[in-house]
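Handoff note, outgoing to incoming analyst
You'll be picking up this chain. Sequence as last confirmed:
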Amino acid sequence: MFLSASSTLSRKRGQIVAIDIGTRTSKAVWLQKKDAGFELTHYAVQDAPISEKSPSVELLAEHLKQLTQTGGGRTKHVSVAIGVNDAMLRTAELPQMSTSEMRQVLKYNSKAYFQQDFPDYSFDCHLLASSPDKSQAEAAKLPVKLRTLVAGIKRPLLEGIQSAVKSCGLIPDLVTLNPIGAVNAFELAQPQEFAQGPVALVDIGFKTSTITLILNGELSLSRVVSIGGDRLTTGLSESMNISYPEAEGIKIGMPDEVQSAILPLLMPLGRELRASIDFFEHQQDRAVTQVYISGGTARSAFIVEALQSEMMVPCQIWNPLAPIQIGITDVQALEALQLTVPLLGAAVGAAIAGLS
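Most recent structure output, in case you need it:
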């Protein structure tokens, strides 16, 4: 259910709601097919449940119910995107076999391909176009190895999400990971950059940030950095002796006196992101030419510029709604949408997957 639609999607949905379950906020978008593209008919953002561990099924169900009830029952079919804290996303070379067989091999012997066990995980696999040529391998009498994108999620979490969605009277069509959702949305929004690359997508989340490298139209590498917007806000609060809410407010507005305080906080994040880019460039012998940034913290032009200086690669915010028609007429909702756009990449991509 991660990388491709479940069997319930074989009927080709005309509309769907996609939910990005976040650590601090969850985002929902309602998309429907329109002409040759898609139309956004509604969206919602809501504070996520506060929990030391993964929220219970009951707490998650109530959260999803509150988040989706503003949609007015437009559709019951749901795509869900989750973060990577309780999941994994890797590339691996697997023997030539069907996708269902790949799942079984990874279920019982994940350590052989990832150098670590992933017990009680559910896996899904997607064959990458850059897999070695089968005929060449056979001519050289070598076993055929298929370059495969593998996503995994802890089984209890997956089952909990499915149960929570169903308890709201909704139908879980697809569960995917945030980086995959973001890549889906980026492909639609920036098709030329996606096809050529290499480019990096950086999502600055609440507790962590994710960097995903795309090369020749494929997700090539994804890494999680344990620095997010929360650390920046907490650091501002402590260095300026102000409350957390005050620090959160000025972090985005960024008056001049705040810039000197936040620069030292951004340097560790920039270094970690640069290290991932260095690893990719060394591995692929290709230079990353552009970084596209998303997340609530990305709404600050100063932060984007500071990260650009640290990573030494041009950086810009990207808009996952750029190619999508906006079917929202409420003026206040439209104004709020402009501030919300950097948060919607994973949800938009999950919706696109559910409708494709």
